[in-house]
Amino acid sequence: MRLHSQSFRAPVSYSTSFNPSMERVREWRDTLFFNRFPGFCDGFKEAPAICRKEVQDYINEVEKLARTLYKMIFQSLGLENKYINTDVPDIPRTLMGINYYPPCPNPSLTLGLGSHSDVSCLTVLHPDSEVLGLEINHKGTWVPVLPVDASAFVINLADQVEILTNGKYRSIEHRVLTNGEKARMSIACFFGPLEETVVAPLPVLIDGNNPPKYRATLFKDYNRNFASSRLQPNRGTLDFARI
């Protein structure tokens, strides 16, 4: 409990739900967060001794994967590496959450994680390979994400990629159900830009036939808007930047 905090800026924190002060119903989830905030903190270096080496080794390898995937997103749109390296915002901001979803006595009353889209650029998720719960919203229908094998990752595109690509790639709305029988765990790693980064549709993807769909926003302001409320369904956090 010495690590208990609802602040997204704490280097290491243990929290329940998302934003209890704003929620009508608490989410059925506990999370241990590690926050790498360049120039401010590195929670992976401050992790409890019992798991410090493990979380450091894990995030170092997952970050390599995230950077590779992030670059490939823009390569798939025909952008040259020189442009990607100079004009696409970097993703040094890292937040890792180890989630524990205990059995819920009445799963009809709450969710493990409310419906929302992630606000950063990219999420690398290691889901529970045995206990189902993660769902994505596909054309208005909630579809369960079935485990492939114990070593498989789920990659969520997040809001800043949708803004940068002017909607060519879309962030994904997702949620986590509760169940009354088995505990569930997952590890989510979120990668995003520095707070002072201005995020806007890349000019190379804008023309007369593709006008900008989003205004330029400071990531700090976008993130603050996200953290100040409940999780927003229907990818509602994007309204902050939509034109």
From TrEMBL:
Residues 90-193 form the Fe2OG dioxygenase domain. Belongs to the iron/ascorbate-dependent oxidoreductase family. It comes from Ceratopteris richardii. The keyword Repeat does not apply. InterPro entries: IPNS-like_FE2OG_OXY, IPNS-like_sf, Oxoglu/Fe-dep_dioxygenase_dom, Plant_2OG-oxidoreductases. Keywords: Iron, Metal-binding, Oxidoreductase. The keyword Transmembrane does not apply. GO terms for molecular function: metal ion binding; oxidoreductase activity. It comes from the Eukaryota. This is Fe2OG dioxygenase domain-containing protein. PANTHER family: OXOGLUTARATE/IRON-DEPENDENT DIOXYGENASE.
